[in-house]
Design brief:
With 495 residues, this protein is an alpha+beta fold. 52% of the residues lie in helices and 12% in strands. The longest helix has 27 residues.
Length: 495
């Protein structure tokens, strides 16, 4: 069962989107699939960007490469982090990106898009994005909140500050405007419910709930039951029709499975309960139908988002298929691997440090000169640092990545720098004061560690297997790299 967990964004239309029931209609939004074997949709801004590689119908631009490089530089697999790993360079990263495109192309050629799970996932993603666009076009810029309204809301609830009060008023107005719009859409969609089929729905629901074919340890209907236990004659029982489509029993059950079990209706053994869930199931397809009528499904940014999502799913499935080729290591292999990598399974090295973050190298050199002249560390921070509020903390190789070696070379009470480090989403210059230095401690082997060791081994084998698979596919699919377009890319100097 899929669970959709939303955080409430600040923008009213995004918050409202989170409240819309995301359900599966019968009519697929298939723009992404239609694009699969045609030229990819390129953001207009990308046309003016520098092309660094091409393969089949894919074009990789410099901005995409730089973004990927920044992502790759940050340590993300802490359990499998290797402090001796060579930092990725532009050409290596670009070849990896081209190989991934080759895997996606191969996945398409092998018919992965016919996979029901992928197809449904892409369709639902595109529907959410399409309705999001509809919300933006209809709501955004039309919600005005006055000072009097904010004041009245704060008077009604003294615990609210002005910003929170404004948000609540915006949401209320947005909800009212959207409800009115949806009623208009519903009215012109000519919805006709086939209530004569409701008793059959109740009967089938009770069967799946009370008498599943496979025993289960939960008291609710699983998504797998909808797929496996509905009979062919039941799947297409029509419960409602509208201008451009219909809602079937399968859609109704999928709507049910999209609700977190504790919040599922308790009255689905009644016609009223069936009807209320049917109303919920109608909401997304009617909104999608309206968006298509307005030709929003042709929006270039939307199509690119859908295509990118489809590619991520295909790449994920291609990698998953390769992982199935891996064999579990034997106990002897696990012990031997541990013997070669004892340090990585022990307690990590650590440093306790304090920092002065600087906006550029010139500022960092000025800060260092001030410290060398005898000025207090805190005083220098207040004068030069991007972060005025700072305190000492403990860091590890997995947090510092390729910058760890610079720090570990220092000794307690020593000032290091200027050196670079990860700052927010990018890289910046810093002055580092080493306060404490703790070496790592090795652990003795224990069979209780087999799971962790096995996971590490399988991860390494999988990376090797995927890399080899990519190289093989690049022999099959011609590609072109433009060396002159990447020769000036330094991962550590990307803004």
């Amino acid at each position: 069962m899929r669970k959709l967990l939303f955080k409430k964004p600040a923008a009213p239309f995004l918050w409202l989107l989170a409240t819309i029931c995301y359900l599966c209609p019968t009519e697929a939004y298939s723009s992404a699939a239609q694009q699969s074997n045609s030229q990819p949709v390129i953001n207009p801004a990308a046309k003016e960007s520098i092309v660094v590689a091409r393969i089949a119908y894919y074009t990789i631009i410099k901005g995409e490469l730089e973004k990927r490089l920044m992502t790759e530089l940050h340590p993300y697999d802490y359990d499998d982090y290797d402090e001796n790993a060579v930092p990725v360079d532009a050409k290596t990263m670009l070849m990896k990106m081209v190989a991934e495109k080759a895997m996606i192309i191969e996945a398409c050629a092998q018919g992965y898009l016919k996979n029901e799970a992928i197809n449904t996932s892409v369709r639902r993603f595109s529907e959410r994005k399409l309705v999001n666009l509809l919300l933006q076009r209809h709501i955004e810029g039309k919600i005005n909140v006055t000072e009097d309204e904010i004041t009245r809301k704060m008077q009604a609830d003294p615990k609210l500050d002005k910003a929170r009060a404004k948000t609540i008023v915006e949401r209320a107005k947005t909800g009212m405007m959207w409800d009115q719009y949806y009623k208009q859409i519903y009215g012109k969609s000519r919805v006709k419910k086939l209530s004569q089929n409701f008793p059959r729905v109740i009967q089938i629901h009770e069967r799946l709930l009370r008498n599943p074919k496979q025993s289960r340890n939960v008291g609710f209907i699983r998504t797998s039951q909808v797929k496996d236990e509905l009979m062919p004659a039941e799947i297409n029982i029509v419960l409602a029709q509208y201008n451009s489509g219909k809602i079937t029993l399968k859609d109704w059950f999928e709507a049910l499975c999209d609700i977190v079990p504790p919040r599922r209706p308790r009255d689905l053994n009644t016609p009223k309960g069936v009807d209320q869930l049917l109303e919920r199931a109608l909401r997304m397809p009617l909104l999608v139908s309206e968006a298509k009528a307005l030709r929003l499904d042709r929006d270039k940014d939307l199509l690119k988002q859908v295509r990118d999502y489809e590619d991520r799913r295909l790449l994920g499935e291609a990698r998953a298929a390769k992982r199935k080729e891996l064999k579990d290591p034997t106990t002897e292999q696990i012990i031997a691997y541990f013997g070669r990598n004892k340090e990585s399974f022990g307690t990590s090295k650590s440093l306790k440090i304090d920092l002065i973050w600087c906006q550029d190298l010139k500022t960092a050199k000025q800060a260092r000169a001030a410290l060398d002249s005898g000025k207090d560390f805190e005083a220098v921070r207040q004068q030069y640092s991007l972060e005025k509020q700072g305190k000492a903390f403990t860091t590890h190789p997995s947090s510092e990545g390729l910058f760890w070696k610079d720090l570990w070379a220092g000794d307690p009470n020593q000032i290091i720098g200027p050196v670079k480090g990860f700052y927010r989403q990018g890289i910046s210059w810093r002055i580092v004061k080493i306060l404490e230095k703790a070496p790592g401690k090795e652990k003795l082997y224990s069979s209780s560690m087999d799971g962790q060791i096995k996971s590490r081994m399988m991860s390494e084998q999988n990376k090797t297997l995927i890399a080899q698979y990519g190289k093989e596919l690049l022999k099959k699919y011609p590609y072109q790299i433009y060396p002159d377009s990447i020769k000036d890319i330094d991962p550590l100097d990307i803004p």
